[in-house]
Amino acid sequence: MKILKPLLRKELKELLMEKSILIGMIIVPLIMFLLIGGLTSFGIRSAATHVAGVHEIGLVDLHNTDLSGRLLPNMLRDNGLKPIILDCRERSECVRIAEDMDLKLVAIIPSGFSENFTKGLKSGVETIYILKSLSISEITACEGLSSKLMKSIKSLAEKIHGRGLNIEFLKHPADERSTIIYLGRSLRAPIEALASMLPTMILGLPLVAMMTASYASSISATSIALEKESKTLELLLSLPVRRFTILLGKLLGTIIIVVLGTISFMVGFAIYGLMLSSAFIPEVGVETSVGGVVQMPFIGSIFTPSPIFIAVVLASIFLGMMMTTCLGILIGVLCADVRSSQQLVGAVMMPLTIFPFFILIFSSIESLPAGIRLALLLDPYTHFFLAIMKGFIGDLPSAAISLAVMVGATIVMLVIGSWLFMGERLITMRIGFRRKSI
Amino acid sequence: MKPVVVKDLHKSFGDKEVLRGVGFEVEEGEIFGLVGPNGAGKTTTLRILATILKPDRGDAWIMGYSVKDDPEKVRERIAYLPEDAGVYKHLTGFEFLRIISEIYGVGREGFDRGVELCGLGEALSDPLSSYSKGMKRRILLASALMVQPRVAILDEPTSGLDVRHAVYVRRIIKRYVRESGSSAIVSSHNMLEVEYLCDRMAFIDGGRIIAEGRPDELKQVYEAENLEEVFTKIIGGG
Predict the structure, then answer these.
(1) Pick the residue with more confidence: A300 or B64?
(2) More confident of the two residues B201 and A65
(3) How far is A203 from A389, CA to CA, in rounded Å?
(4) Residue of B nearest to A223 (CA)
(5) Which of A235, A242, A424 sits opposite B53 (nearest CB)?
(6) Inter-chain contacts counted by CB atoms under 8 A, chains A and B
(7) Pick from A17, A92, A419, B203: CA 20 to 30 A from residue A294's CA?
């Protein structure tokens, strides 16, 4: 124990004197989580605001009885919902009116509802959720509306039949048959199923893609920094080869690995899709814990990717990797050795990727305050996530814009990297995380 | 035309002025030694000649081509062995020599010359990471000379080598220059090496050439028994 004390003191001093550890392990997480915490709490707060308070929902009463026209609306009001009676017959008409009135939920009370309800027989309520985004805040808000609606129907059942009678009916007086509408696409599924699956589906993909792309920056930064560290750079630069050719060689070398990475990624993604689809896609539909049936068209539309979606994902991954490769080249030129380059890659890539990733989990880009939205949109990696997410939901114009931004960012980084590579800066620029002497 | 002409080279890194008007010339078939203490400006001068750095002022011409204006033409006519240069550890000796011969376009003949020059035999099939410092230096020198440069720029070619490898390296350099009629510029701290290798030499200190001549001439002028004594008389440190 006597020997351990000075050893421990030495270790702590060595580690805390190391700038990279101090910055990477203590300062960066502190600042990053502070910022991420602030931004995500904004997302959660906005989701909570959607759920809390009184919310307007559209109510279409196809039965027109005292129960459906007076008692149910009263019960909805008691549960924090403000029913707006919509005068429509066709579903598309109801959706159009609801969209005009900025309503997230339309509940359709079918004919025969009151008879069944009065007799203690399970009824069905058709609900239409109109989503503006696929962010967690939006889906959480819709989940809240669904919960309040079903609670209202339960309370109505208890009011009519009193407690203790037909327990099964009182526990589950009505089935909710939901349709989710997003960007003109109609999906038959309970909102809860979407809420539980969406993060994995939408965010799992870019996260894994991002990890693969980060590897590309590591490779390209290392390929230059290693030349400096192993002292082969001077020899390389004295060969009768143009600097641009050397740079091109490095880029192509990395790109080949990046392409292999993309192929590996896509194979992995295909396996992931197959595994998920085999887990979620039943032959005729599967009963969910919240009631209702997850229909084949809904899951199928998500897990059977369209050729355009595959193209968008491939383009995003490839451009993401290209962008990251160029960033890596830039970092490699700036750094004195492999260790410094790896640290700088981490320090640059972490905030550039983690911020948009976390923020886009909880909020849609459209719902963010203008300042944060602008800051995010200036980060090219936001577009990496956006392209995949927009491609996923079939919003091709937005995906194309994000892809174009990524192309622009790649070109800018390539130009700066080439400029640094061409002159003697390659030899003289030395960003290093040197250790302080104790 | 003199193979190497250096005139009034100036170079600064930030506030530090490393070269303050370096100038010398190297004749055809001559080995020219550049000698000086650490930080004198030897490596910076050689880097400028190898077109890795650009001079702030002044210029140098290799086979008539300016290092400032025609760096690509210069690179086609030189081979540079940097001080303490590393190797690509995943390549074998054969692979390394083949890549260099392809870049210089010297073909199979050049490659065979490299194999012969380094004298590493079967070890050439091994990855360069397994080579000792002396072996690495030998293969790097072989790669520089197998392309038959008109000017070989060698920065401390025997630094840190044991006697066996150092003797081999010196012998190869001398043989190459004598047989090819090309020129070489060699920087060194080893006065015995300079005396053995160089036809002419220059002492550099504080970014300036402070003495230049044949080793024998310099010994005579400074009334010294050997070059080490000349060094201490000119630069100090005795």
Answers:
(1) B64
(2) B201
(3) 8
(4) B88
(5) A424
(6) 56
(7) A92
Q: What is the DSSP-derived secondary structure letter of residue B125? A: G
Mean pLDDT of chain A: 76
**Nearest by Cα to A320 from A391, A272, A271:** A391
C-alpha to C-alpha distance for A129 and A139, rounded to whole angstroms: 9
Q: What is the pLDDT of residue A38?
A: 67
Residue B106 contacts residue B148 (beta carbons within 8 Å)? yes
- Closest approach of A228 to chain B, Cα-based (Å): 9
Q: Which two tokens stand for residue A135?
A: 């962010």
Cβ–Cβ below 8 Å for B52 and A235: no
Residues in chain A: 438
- When scoring A239, A250, A338 by the number of chain B Cβ atoms within 10 A, the one with the most, hence best to mutate, is A239
Q: Is B178 helix (H, G, I), strand (E, B) or coil?
A: helix
Give φ, ψ of A354 to 5 degrees. Answer: -70, -40
Q: What is the 3-state secondary structure (H, E, C) of chain A?
A: CCCHHHHHHHHHHHHHHCHHHHHHHHHHHHHHHHHHHHHHHHHHHHHHHHHCCCEEEEEEECCCCHHHHHHHHHHHHHCCEEEEECCCCCHHHHHHHHHHCCCCEEEEECCCHHHHHHHCCCEEEEEEEEECCCCHHHHHHHHHHHHHHHHHHHHHHHHHHCCCCCHHHHHCCEEEEEEEEECCEEEECCHHHHHHHHHHHHHHHHHHHHHHHHHHHHHHHHHHHHHHHCCCHHHHHHCCCCHHHHHHHHHHHHHHHHHHHHHHHHHHHHHHHHHHHHHHCCCCCEECCCCCEECHHHHHHHHCCCHHHHHHHHHHHHHHHHHHHHHHHHHHHHECCHHHHHHHHHHHHHHHHHHHHHHHHHCCHHHCCHHHHHHHHHCHHHHHHHHHHHHHCCCHHHHHHHHHHHHHHHHHHHHHHHHHHHCCHHHHCCECCCCCCC
Tell whether the torsion through CA atoms of B146, B151, B153 and B159 is positive or negative: positive
Share of chain B above pLDDT 70, in %: 99
Q: Which CATH number fits domain B4-85+151-162+169-234: 3.40.50.1000, 3.40.50.300, 3.30.428.10, 3.40.1180.10?
A: 3.40.50.300
How far from chain centre, in Å, is Cα A291?
Answer: 26
CA dihedral A289, A290, A292, A297 (to 10 degrees): -80
A59-68: b (≥16 Cβ within 10 Å) or e: bbbebebebb
CA distance B158 to B221: 28
Asked if A239 and B47 come within 8 Å (Cβ–Cβ), the reply is no
Amino acid at A90: E
The verdict on domain A54-188 having CATH code 3.40.1710.10 is yes
Among B residues 69-98, those touching chain A with beta carbons less than 8 Å apart? 72, 75-76, 78-82, 84-89
pLDDT, tens only, A216-257: 788 888 888 888 888 888 998 999 988 888 888 888 887 787
Q: List the single residue in B with minimal CA-CA distance to A424.
A: B53
Interface ipTM: 0.92
State the nearest Cα–Cα gap between B85 and chain A, in angstroms: 5
Q: Encode pLDDT of B187-222 as tens digits.
A: 998 898 999 999 999 999 999 999 999 999 999 999
Give the CA angle between residues A151, A154, A156 to the nearest 5°.
110
Q: What is the pTM of this model?
A: 0.69
Which amino acid is located at A167 in the chain? I
Contact A143, A192 (CB under 8 A): yes
Which positions of chain B have pLDDT values less than 70?
237-238
Chain B residues in contact with A427 (beta carbon < 8 A):
47, 52-53
- Give the residue on A whose Cα is nearest the Cα of B85: A231
